[in-house]
Amino acid sequence: MKGLILAAGRGSRMRELTRHRPKCMLSLGDQTLIRWQISALSAAGVTDLAVVRGYLGHRIDAPEVRFIDNPRWADTNMVASLLCARDWIGKETAVVSYSDIVYGAGSVRELISMEGEICIVFDPNWLTLWSQRFTKPLDDAETFQASDDGTLLEIGQRATSLGQIKGQFMGLLLFRDYGLHQVISYVDKLSDDVLDQLDMTDLMSRMLVDGVHISAQPISGNWAEVDSEFDLRLYEGMLADRSLDLS
Length: 247
Fold this sequence. Notes:
Layout: E1 2-7, E2 27-28, E3 31-32, H1 33-43, E4 48-53, E5 66-69, H2 78-84, H3 86-89, E6 94-98, E7 101-103, H4 105-112, E8 118-123, H5 126-133, E9 142-146, E10 152-158, E11 168-175, H6 177-187, H7 192-196, H8 200-209, E12 215-218, E13 223-225, H9 229-240
Parallel strand pairs: 1-4, 1-6, 4-5, 8-12
Antiparallel strand pairs: 2-3, 6-11, 7-13, 8-11, 9-10
C-alpha cells in the first residue's frame, strides 16, 4: 500500500513562519508536521511513501520518501498535486494525506479497514476543537453529511448552521484502483482553469452530484489541523497536557 502526502502549497496564512520553509516543516512538539505524518502512516503499515512538493520543496527533510514535483504549485490546488502522482500510484491502493494535519496511526488503520473505492474519515466531535480555534466556528467550517451506513452525502459547502455539519473531513483519504480511476475520469472532463483551482472537498462534492459513491467513517482518535500560528500554540499546550493524544 502506498502513502502520498500533498505538500506543494505555501501555507500563506502562516505568514512569516513559512517565509523560509514549507508549511510541512513547521515544528509541533518534538517533530515537524511531516514527521508526524510519516510516523503515523508507517506505524499503520503504509511504508511506500511519496511527497508531492512545490514551494521550497528542496527544504523538506524526509530522506526515506520519494519526491514528486508539482512545478505549477503556485497556480494549482490539491487535486492537481494528486494528479502529479497518478503514475506513481498506478493501480495500487493509496492513502492520501494533507501535509498540514497531524494524526495517529489508529486513524490511518481505521481508514484502511474501510470498504469502498474512495474512502474518507471525519471527526464527528469537530466542534470541540473548532471552538478552541475560532471565536465563530462556523466561519471556518464546511457542511458535512453522511448516512448511517457510511455514505458521504454532502461536503465542502458554506455552512450557515451547526445542523448542516455532522463532522469535519480531516484530510485523510484512501483510493483503491477504481476509485482513482473515477477521479481521473471526472477531472479529465474539466477545463484546465477549473482543474487548477479544484480543492479536494470541491472535487468530492462535484463527484457526489455525478453519482460517485464515497465512503465516510468517523474516527475515534485525535487529530489536528494547522492553519495558523495560533493553532500551533494551541496544540503545543494540548500535547503538553495530553488533551491531544496522537497515538
